[in-house]
Amino acid sequence: MKVGIIGASGYGGLELIRFLHNHPEVEQITLFTSSEEGTIFSQKYSHLLNILDQPLQRIENDRLEQFDVVFSSAPAGVASQLLPPLVGKGPKLIDLSGDFRLKDLALYEEWYKKEPAPASAVAESVYGLTEWNKAAIAKAQLIANPGCYPTAVLLSLLPLLKENLIDPSQLIIDAKSGVSGAGNQPNQMTHFSETNENTAIYKLNQHQHIPEIEQAFSLFAQDAPPITFSTHLVPMTRGILATSYATVAEGMTEEDLVNCLEETYADKPFVRIIRETNKFGTNQVYGSNYCDIHVKVDPRTNRATIVSVIDNLVKGAAGQAIQNMNVQFNLDETAGLAHVPAFI
Amino acid sequence: MKVGIIGASGYGGLELIRFLHNHPEVEQITLFTSSEEGTIFSQKYSHLLNILDQPLQRIENDRLEQFDVVFSSAPAGVASQLLPPLVGKGPKLIDLSGDFRLKDLALYEEWYKKEPAPASAVAESVYGLTEWNKAAIAKAQLIANPGCYPTAVLLSLLPLLKENLIDPSQLIIDAKSGVSGAGNQPNQMTHFSETNENTAIYKLNQHQHIPEIEQAFSLFAQDAPPITFSTHLVPMTRGILATSYATVAEGMTEEDLVNCLEETYADKPFVRIIRETNKFGTNQVYGSNYCDIHVKVDPRTNRATIVSVIDNLVKGAAGQAIQNMNVQFNLDETAGLAHVPAFI
Amino acid sequence: MKVGIIGASGYGGLELIRFLHNHPEVEQITLFTSSEEGTIFSQKYSHLLNILDQPLQRIENDRLEQFDVVFSSAPAGVASQLLPPLVGKGPKLIDLSGDFRLKDLALYEEWYKKEPAPASAVAESVYGLTEWNKAAIAKAQLIANPGCYPTAVLLSLLPLLKENLIDPSQLIIDAKSGVSGAGNQPNQMTHFSETNENTAIYKLNQHQHIPEIEQAFSLFAQDAPPITFSTHLVPMTRGILATSYATVAEGMTEEDLVNCLEETYADKPFVRIIRETNKFGTNQVYGSNYCDIHVKVDPRTNRATIVSVIDNLVKGAAGQAIQNMNVQFNLDETAGLAHVPAFI
Amino acid sequence: MKVGIIGASGYGGLELIRFLHNHPEVEQITLFTSSEEGTIFSQKYSHLLNILDQPLQRIENDRLEQFDVVFSSAPAGVASQLLPPLVGKGPKLIDLSGDFRLKDLALYEEWYKKEPAPASAVAESVYGLTEWNKAAIAKAQLIANPGCYPTAVLLSLLPLLKENLIDPSQLIIDAKSGVSGAGNQPNQMTHFSETNENTAIYKLNQHQHIPEIEQAFSLFAQDAPPITFSTHLVPMTRGILATSYATVAEGMTEEDLVNCLEETYADKPFVRIIRETNKFGTNQVYGSNYCDIHVKVDPRTNRATIVSVIDNLVKGAAGQAIQNMNVQFNLDETAGLAHVPAFI
């Protein structure tokens, strides 16, 4: 397979390279850029010396059409312009931005404050939450790869919502993320001295992943009232931990919830249910494509606390994108992705 | 004033020393220990060289009775034994452990899994949430200094509960803490390589600060149903950020909530209400005795998100303890505590 | 005393505010800016709410002349323009940039790649290494406050060079710094995701503090050959640890070196010699104006390893600046600076 | 191949598992323990759930003899007891401790303060610095895998010493390490709150890697006088950066040094020479088996600064161990080790 990557300089792009380089079916990786044409990639990123020493190419549709698959790691508002001309052409397309995720264009405009992508391309796109949409992904040309937060939230909540084990009307989701989710552009919010030794809440009630989560609830489980979802920045590079709170449905128990999760994911290689643990954290999936889930019901309140962890750059971005590529090409879902979590 | 500190080697003790050393009314600080008698303190902690070079003293009630005030930074289960013999004697007593906080001894046993302190001493003790209990603190001999999490949670929620601005029946509190809250004893949970680059949930539904928060709701605001309260460890040393979620009471608005908080704390030097912010984090109170609070109501859900930040070792421990000492001795509440937050 | 601060938005400025706010002789602090006139400072930096709520003022020489002392935390290349008009006028001037440190203007141009300050102002300036230049500082109007690295290096090496206890011809200095030394402007080098979990060497053989150290050797100890000095960025916010290596002079012992250091600083409140230690690190001076020094001689090599630690923002910048102000105004050297190191 | 791992619970063991799990020639991994027999490994380390769910086995020589290769990640002082009975038996043996590295047993006792391993086993062992000892490794049964610091130091200095490009008599090596090098046993030195936001020097002139480096100089390059080598702990988990300082030999230039390094490692897949860089750090080898080297000569001093970076747990431990296994079994040196550095 020949793979093209648009926007390789971003962190999504770097992670695509990290995994695709050792993917058994990938023969060739070519990098495209809108602004750094000719730059030798391993001079910009010396960790890739001897691994990817090619110059960045100018984005040209003629060239891109010749690849088997094109990943875009371009930012929201840019992918919406770059990918539509390739729809209906040869390559499979996998977009890591939010530009093709929201089917309701008005919602996109409201939350992203940008021009939406052309309606036809959005209509064409398939939401790439692999474990929940595999059949559609297998047939899709254009994949809208899920956001990092939605991946962590949806994998843990969808089974419980679908089986009516929790009350959708009182859902509170409190998410914590490492800083790499903010990308590679330096700004005050990601400046080391103001991020280190600091835990902060940001974009309160304004995060663009809110409508994405709500849309997926409708699509895969049930319509639910608007959710409360808040996002925090913690002083680490990788990892998302999402803590969700919901009232347990009448008559249901912790065991019912755990069983439902275990059954849903029994044959899914990248989702693991952790039954007992004293300390459940992001390091147990570090660097890997796993999503781990833990759930407890408090008998005092009859409320469930559902916790999930992912590596935001892997299962929350590049890893899931490759998992989707594997599905599109009918490969083993784990091809190139069987990295063991680093833990330390 | 002559001050004695029991358990000075712990982080609470070190912070007491940091602030008391420059307190305008403190003449002398003497350190007591149960196991390190004779150790020159600045040999154990060389950051205190030339500042506190005295040997640690053996704990003897005769000696302790001669101080104006005795702080105990001994752990829970130890303070309960050490302080009761001093009740009714000369010194004011301020305990930083959880041993005198819960008035219901059965609750103490249930959550702490330890023998409670003698009932008479517990009955005598006054809960030291300075902004809410000043009159009682002023007259008390024995102060049960609040826990770090409860301080952050109570200061932000009590006004809203007391004025019935939020619904107490759907309260969810998600707290994030730096690692210093776990104290100075090394263990796997605080081992650098397993804590760095890791955000984790721990003691889910089991944290001993739950009954403390519930008791304070009853005492200062209203009886409320059991709460959902969960605690997370983030890779930083200092700071707590507590994110609380509650349904806004019928007819109330964000402005009502903000006004209530501003009015409650108008004349309180250490509580600040932050109206507008993009990123609200623990570094804005770092190293100081402030508690900052921010609140937003989401019109989509009519739910309030109430966020508060403290330095867990200062307002959440030693700083509030000294603030209580100031109240007990009728000093300016800010004496020795007017440190500017470090931010970086 | 009335104090003006130019460039208060930088980290040097924030630290000046942190210490000056509680300085016993400072009545009023006024902030000046070249680009943010009218901004309410506590809206930009909410950690200063209720502490410093004033608007930033435009830089005007007429106004600045009326202060008792003006600190400049403007960057190199800017201070050189702003301060000279105030030379010979009323206020004492303390500059935290490198613009007035190098007496040889050609050297400034070579290492800073900028236009030097006017020769007359440079000639007028006094190097503000308090422990070594107190008499001149007391009489000076314009202080060139030392760089962070030079402070750590000079305090530890000057006594040994002056007394000929080490060989100046084989001096190697390896310095490690937290990221705050790079200031508050976000860039790739200080971007959290590329700085966290990374130790890096930078500006190898090019750091502008090299000529500053060499000039001070000549001024306070002896002429020495060019030094090898290299700088590393470690993933923490505050702190410098400088490890210096030198051959011990013929016939001298570790005891001689330690004694020399202890004697030199016997009456200096902010320099401490640590004799025995297993682990000697920056956290023992965190947040304080101390410089701690430790020295060992290896009998296998007859080489001394001399280690010093400072908080780069305090003794390496704002703290030493205030110490110099204290000297200029004949106050106790420790006024406003007696903060105990935080350690944790 | 069937692989046994003794001491799998340590960080060296965890990293062996991380790489061996995807090694193309490894069929089976079995874990051995001296104290946790029967523990399901993925219950102790939940990041290995579904990856390695087997119980830990008791160490029995009969069983161990049946493996193709046995790695020992047991600590120094323990490996010396466990491995000798297997010498001369079936399995290849690769020891990650320091117990078989020093050929001079008296030196071992002096620096490790422990009983040395039996002389015959030490005599048998081959030092596993792959790039420098490949022929001997290929024939060896027992490999003494190099220490983390020595690996970083030796790969960068051996070529220059061997070719007489630097003066061995004035060698100063200043090394910085992440905390994982201290292993998984919690203690005060690795306690998060005292390690975070702290850079410290430790074991000054006492580090047991000093004689290992000196021995390898003699073995692979030339006898050299005792070195100055010091070690620092920086607040990150993984990574070593070693900065070495040496006077350049008469008539030699920076270009000579760089060329020598490039030629030495031209056909070595895991050593890369970085010619130009502004910032050279450990993150460029993070999680990988690479050692990157950068060298500059300062014309002012004619001194070379030679900098190398490795991931201490990979090239500095488990990665190099597997590289040695590959050599022993005549596999491609990179088998199972072609991980791309993570960078972020």
Name some characteristics of this structure.
21% strand; 344 residues; globular; Dihydrodipicolinate Reductase, domain 2; 15 strands; homotetramer; Rossmann fold; 2 domains; seven-stranded parallel β-sheet
What does this structure look like?
The structure is a homotetramer. Chain A has about 350 residues and is of the alpha/beta class. The first copy, chain A, folds into 2 domains: about 1-125, 3-Layer(aba) Sandwich (Rossmann fold); about 150-310, Dihydrodipicolinate Reductase, domain 2 (2-Layer Sandwich), CATH 3.30.360. Helices cover about 30% and strands about 20% of the residues of chain A. Chain A is built from 12 helices and 15 strands. In chain A, strands 3-2-1-4-5-7-6 form a 7-stranded parallel beta sheet. In chain A, helix 1 (about 10-20) packs across helix 12 (about 315-330) and helix 7 (about 130-140) packs parallel to helix 12. The two termini of chain A are about 35 Å apart. The model of chain A has no long low-confidence stretch (mean pLDDT about 95). Chains in contact: A-B, A-C, A-D, B-C, B-D, C-D.
The CATH homologous superfamily of the largest domain in chain A: Dihydrodipicolinate Reductase, domain 2
Q: Round the mean pLDDT of chain A to the nearest integer and report it.
A: 97
CATH architecture name of the largest domain in chain A: 2-Layer Sandwich
Q: Please give the radius of gyration of chain A in angstroms.
A: 20 Å
Q: How many beta-strand runs of chain A?
A: 15
What is the strand content of chain A? 15-25%
Low-confidence stretches of chain A: none
Strand order of the largest sheet of chain A: 3-2-1-4-5-7-6
- Helical/strand content category of chain A: alpha/beta
**End-to-end gap of chain A:** 33 Å
